Prior knowledge:
The complex is a heterodimer. By secondary structure, chain A is an alpha+beta fold. Chain A has nine helices and six strands; from the N terminus they run ααααααβββαβαββα. In chain A, strands 1, 2, 3, 4, 5 and 6 form a six-stranded antiparallel β-sheet that branches. Chain A starts with 27 loop residues before the first helix and ends with a helix. By secondary structure, chain B is α/β, with parallel strands linked by helices. Chain B has eleven helices and four strands, in the order αααααββααααββαα. A two-stranded parallel ribbon of chain B has the order 1-4. In chain B, strands 2-3 form a two-stranded parallel ribbon. The longest helix of chain B has 17 residues. Chain B is globular and about 60 Å long. The termini of chain B are far apart.
Amino acid sequence: MNGAQDLGGMQGFGPVAPQPDEPPFHADWERRALAVTLAAGALGHWSIDEGRHARESLHPAEYLSSSYFEIWLKGLAALLARHGLASPAELAAARALEPALPTRRPKLAADAVASALARGAPYAREASAPARFTEGEAVRTVNAHPTGHTRLPRYARGRAGVVERVQGVFVLPDAQAHGLGEQPCWLYTVRFEGRELWGADADAALSVSIDAFEPYLEQGSPERAAS
Amino acid sequence: MTIATGCCPPASGGDDGHDAASRDDAAMARRVAAIESVLTQKGYIDPAALEAIIETYEHKIGPRNGARVVARAWADPAYSERLARDATAAIAELGYGGRQGEHMVAVRNTRRLHNLVVCTLCSCYPWPVLGLPPVWYKSAPYRSRAVLDPRGLLGEFGVTLPEGVAIRVWDSTAETRYLVVPDRPPGTEGWSEERLADLVTRDSMVGAGLALAPERAAA
């Protein structure tokens, strides 16, 4: 979706403000926000993609005026409500008002945290079809504006690029975010020249790559991509 | 109000004025406490597990991990080769991996090429080697301009690249996570990996900085 999360190429936000020796958390509630988000996610009711989509579905004004962990908490509240785990009324009352539902996965136990984090959640899958594109091939990204989740940023839509690397087969976020299964497909590193993305005034020594799922790509014309 | 820097007042109690929304720490604390209470009462979360998660990302996993990877790549050409070929496996050799680092790629700076990593769509970042992302990495100023004007953005980090150095930006739009291997500073020949690691800053492994010159290493 063309939400406020899709920031690449926007202007007017002012300079970046790096903080020297920045700690991982700036307030105790940020620690809690990270931990409760991970622990709730471990129940298995939503994927990382559905989680991202919950955050980017915030109203743009709200997304842009919230700090990052605030966005996480707002997204988490939406996920808990959608999956029936905690209602807005319960969160407002700060106590359980309804019986608990069975969960898809057991509660994350303290002694299982280290192994769960070390294991992660690999998203690579076995290939069931050959890759459509090869390394060095000219491609063009589709120009599409789906209302659901996508990982093709606006600045890179309808642009000519080159497949730099065929990464393998991975879960398709566009499908998994909406409960449509994994629909694994080939993933490519696609490199664009800065001038293809930003026009003739762009830095001639700039190139940008995205990780593009196969449905994001069409065959390109070699002379355009090589420029 | 400058919105969406995502900044918070520093822990020292100062206020950089960048983020009116997050000044209200008390309201956010109430919000997260309410979620925790409900989920705990319903048996969905274990408060001790939350403490274990916080402990992990506050004290166990951080940019020192990545610095060790980079130092080994500088010191050991065979390791550097393995890191270039299969970064996930090479990083696992040092004991690092897992959540948000399941599919790693290492990209190496040279005298002709500078790599910069961003996630324009959210905050994808290689947690096992760098820890949690800093606020600036998640902020709108960084995410918006990294792909459009990376040279100008680098200037705000105090990095001026010499003429003729090309910039390659990696937008982390899938589950692949990128680690920049900064250029090894001159004058460090024969240094141990432990000493070399002291030159490798977090920012340098995102591409928002350079490795420290030997004289700037922490004493």
